[in-house]
Design goal:
Blueprint (H helix, E strand, L loop, with lengths): L1 H10 L13 E6 L3 E3 L3 E10 L4 E3 L12 E4 L5 E9 L3 E5 L4 E7 L1 E10 L6 E10 L6 E10 L3 E3 L60 H20 L7 H9 L5 H22 L5 H9 L1 H19 L8 H11 L3 H15 L1 H14 L6 H23 L12 H29 L6 H19 L11 H4 L5 H17 L25 H5 L29 H11 L3 E6 L4 H11 L2 H9 L2 E6 L12 E2 L6 E2 L2 H13 L6 E5 L16 H16 L2
Parallel strand pairs: 2-12, 13-14
Antiparallel strand pairs: 1-3, 3-9, 4-8, 4-10, 5-10, 6-9, 7-8, 10-11, 13-17, 15-16
Helix pairs in contact: 1-2, 1-9, 1-11, 2-9, 2-10, 3-10, 4-8, 4-10, 5-6, 6-9, 6-11, 7-8, 9-10, 11-12, 12-14, 18-20
Length: 690
């Protein structure tokens, strides 16, 4: 179980192909060029609908499909007259919703009468709609904005209607429908005294508020994990037998100084690998490797291959010709020969160390240039120390256990663990793109089966290809194997309640979120009333907050609500592939003192920095930070964090006031609930001016 937790931590990254953007409906709107005060005019909204698609109308009695609707922003220059009128919609019976609907095919038209009260005339608002096709069963919701601000108000009635938008006066609005977001439109939140606050632009961080980042602790923790992985690599069939061979190389022909150079050479060779890869681990590359579907599927396949190799299906080796050339250099003697002897050890042991080294390198893809170097140094240090010590003190060899079947047992167990961990990479891509092919219960089921196989194997319930000799024939089970089996089966029993929704807090960062669990009896039984917020949050159909917190996933919408409710805004910079984010939610946010404050004292917004949902084109912008166009929810949230807060790590918690100024030093990963309570309380006190 210890090795299980170790490799889980090592394999996780700190913190379908690109879909075509569907545009089934394009909108335009028109109005008279001029009107007299007191006169009624008719606003015309037209939709051009793609072939084989249809648009839902605005009037039918049926729960389910999204009706087309128009929301007008109140203004003293006009008032609405009557209801929105759809022009000649078609009848359609929907078998799924079991009701009669009204739809449009080809084109759709809606009209709204308004009365002009004063000049200047300003008519603005938003619309939402849904288009569907029976060919593929797809439905695409959408929303947009309209604006009539160029209608001339004259002294007498000279009404000149238009049937089409005037290009010189008003450009038709084309709705860009996103593919994967399915975000619901949000009507404007009425903020009292709107002139009181400046436009929303993003958090403002005072330089005096130092970020409470635990980078050094993070690197130390990663170093320790890599060091333990190096020790684990020693207990593999292609490494352990190399220790006596190394000692025999130095006995009688080498000095203690050469033994020291030998150990340092091992460390140098592994560390240089990390140094070469370090420039590739920048923030953009790391985020791409962490969340894009192609890299994660590659990582998934690599771990599966490594796992099958450990199980004995095949052996991963480097070309013998290359190894022989290096070995020939080692035979020349001298310090150069010592170095090539170390190089030979690294190459020969690759089939067993490769999967562990690969896990460390993948885990280091978190945007830190130094992290791959630290990880490889820690692994190499642990790997080199025993070889160096036994070269110094060859008499210690007598105390070593003989190599045998127990080494293959360790290799097989590591193989099962590699396969289990492979699904983490598939899970990250699945969450970032909302494929929903590896929900929490599916991931748990895979882990339960693999854990059971490990336990049965340790109890000699079956053999693997590498299990040969007396150890394999002997049905006697050692106390050590029984102890390991007890630990594995205990872990298995711990996993099983998760199939019914148990939180499994210790694994919260390694499993898909509970919101993806379809058979969640525990959460349903404990369901509480949601927190009151101002308006329906955008993206709520595929993004979620834990523990019944009702909040937002769009910064501007959340800031508007904070101003309306006169509450500080709690920003959670998070990610689908962020292990520590899930662990914080499971262990810290679930604390009653923390949860009560988040639900009652703040407006909460979760900003996913790795979500791949493509936004409508009219919401794209070019970043002032890197001059790149930000098209997705994740890219825009990541840009907000970097450009405004000079930080790109998650989890990252920020409390801002109604003027968007950060109130207290931001908070990072910290599993002590009492510290998080202090953070929230200090933010509240600063907000109230205490």
């Amino acid at each position: 179980m210890f090795i299980n937790r170790l490799l889980i931590a090592l394999c996780l990254i700190s913190c379908g192909a690109t879909s075509q953007v569907l545009k089934p409906a394009k909108w335009s709107y028109s109005a008279p060029k001029s009107v007299q005060v007191g006169q009624e005019i008719e606003l015309i909204f037209k939709a051009t609908i793609d072939k084989n698609w249809y648009l839902y109308s605005s009037e039918f009695v049926c729960d389910g499909p999204t009706q087309t609707s128009f929301t007008f922003t109140p203004h003293p220059s006009y008032e609405l007259v009557g209801k929105l009128i759809p022009i000649k919609p078609l009848d359609k019976h929907d078998d799924i919703f079991e009701c009669d609907l009204k739809i449009f095919k080809g084109t759709g038209e809606f009209r709204q009468k308004v009365k002009v009260l004063s000049a200047p005339l300003k008519i603005e608002g938003t619309y939402e709609y849904q288009v569907c096709t029976d060919l593929t069963g797809q439905c695409v919701p959408g929303d947009g904005e309209f604006s009539f601000t160029k209608i001339k108000v004259i002294g007498k009635s000279t009404l000149v209607p238009e049937s089409k938008p005037d290009e010189s006066e008003q450009k038709p609005e084309e709705e860009k429908v996103q593919t994967e977001s399915n975000n619901q439109p949000t009507s404007a939140i009425a903020v009292s005294s709107p002139q009181q606050w400046p436009p929303i632009t993003g958090p403002v961080l005072d330089p005096s508020l130092k970020q409470d980042a635990n980078q050094n602790q993070s690197l130390w923790g990663f170093f320790i994990l890599a060091f333990i992985a190096g020790l684990a690599a020693l207990l593999t069939p292609c490494v352990f037998p190399m220790i006596p061979m190394t000692v025999s190389f130095f006995t009688g022909r080498g000095t203690k100084f050469q033994a020291l150079i030998y150990g340092l050479s091992i460390i140098f060779i592994y560390t240089i690998i990390g140094a070469v890869l370090a420039p590739l681990m920048g923030p953009e590359t790391a985020n791409h490797l962490s969340t894009e579907w192609i890299p994660n599927l590659i990582f998934f396949a690599v771990f599966i291959v490594f796992g099958l190799s450990f199980l004995g299906l095949f052996e991963i080796t480097l070309p013998n010709r290359f190894i022989n050339k290096v070995d020939q250099q080692a035979e020349k003697g001298g310090l150069g020969g010592v170095f090539f002897m170390a190089f030979t050890l690294v190459l020969v042991s690759f089939s067993c160390t490769g999967p562990l080294v690969g896990s460390i390198l993948v885990s280091s893809a978190g945007g830190e240039v130094i992290k791959p170097i630290v990880g490889m140094f820690g692994f190499a240090l642990a790997f080199a120390i025993p070889f160096t010590l036994f070269a110094f003190f060859p008499g210690w060899l007598k105390s070593l256990p003989k190599s045998g079947g127990w080494l293959n047992t360790i290799k097989v167990v590591l193989g099962f663990i590699e396969i289990a961990l492979a699904f983490k990479f598939l899970s990250i891509a699945d969450q970032a793109f909302h494929w929903r092919i590896l929900d929490r219960e599916i991931n748990l089921a895979i882990w339960i089966v693999i854990t059971a196989l490990i336990g049965i194997y340790l109890m000699k319930g079956f053999r693997m290809p590498g299990d040969t000799g007396k150890d394999a024939e002997d049905k006697t089970i050692s106390v050590l194997r029984v102890s390991m089996a007890i630990a594995v089966f205990t872990f298995l029993v711990y996993l099983i309640p998760g199939m019914w929704g148990a939180p499994l807090k210790s694994l919260a960062g390694y499993l898909p979120p509970v919101s993806t669990h379809d058979f969640d009896l525990i959460s349903a039984a404990k369901k509480e009333k949601a927190t009151e917020i101002c308006d329906a949050p955008k993206f709520a159909e595929f993004l979620h907050l834990p523990h019944g917190i009702n909040g937002y996933f769009d910064y501007k919408q959340a800031m508007m609500c904070a101003r309306q409710q006169n509450k500080p805004l709690f920003i959670d910079f998070t990610g689908h592939g962020c292990t520590n984010c899930r662990e914080m939610e499971a262990r810290v946010w679930s604390d009653p003192q923390v949860l009560q404050r988040l639900k009652n004292d703040f407006v909460v917004v979760a900003l996913y920095v790795d979500d791949k949902t493509v936004l409508p084109e009219n919401e794209w912008y070019t970043s002032t930070y890197d001059n790149k166009v930000k098209k997705t929810i994740g890219k825009q949230n990541a840009d907000l964090q970097i450009a405004k807060l000079n930080n790109n790590a998650q989890p990252f918690y920020v409390i801002v006031g109604l003027d968007e100024h950060v109130l207290v030093a931001p908070k990072t990963y910290d599993l002590k609930a009492e510290n998080f309570v202090k953070f929230l309380e200090s933010g509240k006190a600063r907000f109230k001016g205490l």
